[in-house]
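Hi R.,

Here's the input for the cobalt (II) ion complex you asked about:
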Amino acid sequence: MNLRTVATTPFEDQKPGTSGLRKSVPDFQKPHYLENFIQSIFNSLDGIEGQTLVLGGDGRYYNRTAIQTILKMAAANGIGKVLVGQGGILSTPATSCIIRKYETFGGIILSASHNPGGPNGDFGVKYNISNGGPAPEKVTSAIFEQSKRIQAYKILEAADINLDRVGTFKLGTMEVEIIDSVVPYLELMESLFDLEAIRQLLTSGKFRMCMDSLHAVTGPYAKQIFEGRLNAPKGTVQNGEPLEDFGGGHPDPNLVYAEELVELLFGEDAPDFGAASDGDGDRNMILGHHFFVTPSDSLAVLTANAHLVPGYKDGLAGVARSMPTSAAVDRVAAKLGIDCYETPTGWKFFGNLLDAEKATLCGEESFGTGSNHVREKDGLWAILFWLNILAVTGKSVEELVREHWQTYGRNFYSRHDYEEVDKAAATELMDNLRSQFTPLKGQTFGFYTIEYADDFSYTDPVDGSIAEKQGIRIGFTDGSRIVFRLSGTGTKGATLRVYLESYEPDTSKHGEDTQTALGDLIQIAKDVAKIQEFTGRNEPTVIT
Ligand code: VG1
Ligand code: CO
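And here is the predicted structure with cobalt (II) ion in place:
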């Protein structure tokens, strides 16, 4: 075995985005590209020698190759031990769970989450710190700085490790332990939920569910949990085999990309409950019989009913939501008398609030919900949370949500994405909006008057760190909002996200179609931002 130091030159584009470094597979396959970034992670971490790391990914194309490279680099960099999920598989929340359970120094997650996979799809690398959560900005900036001046990386010349057999192996002086990908996570779920009540519901013969893993990482987890531990009929989990290209689809649980599940739940003889998760298992979509729950409403409903679930029965310290997420949960927090925090987009901003026990539940409009049980959003956790509530109340998904609206009013909410638009044009559109903050104030568009227009900036209440330019907000006097942001996870051109929200207290109007209810705001967004003029598009590519 030979330790090699390989000379390299920096790549300019290794700045981590909303959630790690995401690039196309061909980019990652460029000589030294992956190695540079991994060495930059190691270089930026103080005292990593002799420490333990967790390593795994969502099973997409290049996962196994990257794991072998990273193991050899870890050995050459003096890491003490690496825990690897069997077959290279670890969902993002399971990685977070394992980092916390074994109190490791950190972990590396290989995933581009909901982005498509395969030889021409995307790949990604994310570093998580010892609390189990995504590296905060100061850590990702340090990694980026290292990547700009890297001159060499270290790697061991050795045979590949067999990733498929559970057990302990040696790579130079480093230990590699291949661990069961599911068991630690399943044990954590057992400690939070009344699985017996859920088992009775799923075997009662009166309730049918379907879980769609979209050929991504939750397949093995969902099969073991639902069809194994909870005795749901075989076939409850569909698309449950992780595939390197996710079967050619977008592993993104929303109404557009999880269409097979949506057709089933809105079809004839539809089941009572449907759920899906994304590439790396941290997102969730919840459907009832002919009914869709927006992620913002889901967070609000979970918060309002958390006392029914064993792991949360003693109350919540507080809740947090990302800025573009609807204010539905704010109303629940106000009623419960707990704090509600508004953070920038991306799970890394919840970490401090969870560590400081200021928030117990967190959520994002982008199909992400989670709690202090780990430091990532968690798809299967959210699905089990819903099932636990359904089992205890005996209500349907639709009944629960409609009753919730009756109590709190309804926040109509939708996100319109304009994908793969020209990057320069998208930046100009945002700059143009910024230049209009003052004149926009007080302007009236039909029924709506603009109360404020600003750039969202966040001061972390725990460590005082400041994040600026986190999205442009236009707020109206009646509480409605439009938010504009550019995505930080896309790999092609730019993606403009337009978030729309209005509040309706009148129950008799809660049946209205969302896009109709938001019709005026949708038009105002197009006009104010001059979307057609800048991007050449008049309609979004994805509406969720
Ligand atoms: C998107 C979502 C954001 C989420 C992030 C990572 O980011 O909007 O809410 O935290 O993806 O989720 P952006 O910058 O593209 O809007 V995942 O499941 O892709 O790790
Ligand atoms: Co994800």
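One thing worth noting: Residues 101 and 184 are 8 Å apart (CA to CA).

Cheers,
M.
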